[in-house]
Amino acid sequence: MKYLILSFCIVFAFAGCKKKKADSAADQAKKDQDIIVKYISDNNLTAVATGSGLYIVTDAVGTGKACTGSSDVRVAYTGSLTNGNIFDQSAPTGVTFNLQNVIAGWTEGIPHFKEGGSGTLLIPSALGYGATAQSSIPANSVLVFKIKLIEVL
Q: Which of 39, 66, 89, 143 is the most buried (most CB within 10 A)?
């Protein structure tokens, strides 16, 4: 009987941990959405939400080839935090990569453009680097990428 009670206690303790972790992911998603909505408002942007937490500001859709989430593409970009601090940028000629090998926000967002298209991806932390800091990017950061889809390979 003692072991049965102990087993129940262990099961409930683990179940409580999972719920707390899930609550924290939901809490972080809400914080990210609030940050993104404020950024959109403060910068007088027109953005479209995709439903995953990603928001897209389209400057130009583009007129060339379309891509998918598994395409090889060449993209010029500047990545910053919502406070404007730039953490990465490409040369104007862009960089080439497969959209399956980048953060989820890019895999989802870049196919909204065709070659020649440009805009901004407002990426919640869950579609970026999540709770893991990456060099100058703090954990749980909303990312702002100004992108130009130069070529679909």
A: 143
C-alpha gyration radius of the chain: 19
Long-range contacts of 32-38 (CB under 8 A, 24+ apart): 32/124, 32/125, 32/126, 32/140, 32/142, 33/124, 35/82, 35/142, 36/82, 36/122, 36/124, 36/142
Number of compact structural domains in the chain: 1
Domain coverage including residue 85? 2-152
Domain CATH for 80 = 3.10.50.40
Please return the burial class of 29, using the count of CB atoms within 10 Å of its CB with bins 0-12, 13-18 and 19+: middle
Question: Which H/E stretch holds residue 101?
Answer: none
> What pLDDT digit, counting tens, does each position of 89-106 carry?
999 999 999 999 999 999
Residue with the two structure tokens 């959209």: 99
Residues 55-88: pLDDT tens digits? Answer: 999 999 999 999 999 999 999 999 999 999 999 9
CB 35 within 8 A of CB 122: no
- Neighbouring residues of 21: CB distance < 8 A, sequence distance ≥ 6: none
Distance CA 5, CA 126 (A): 38
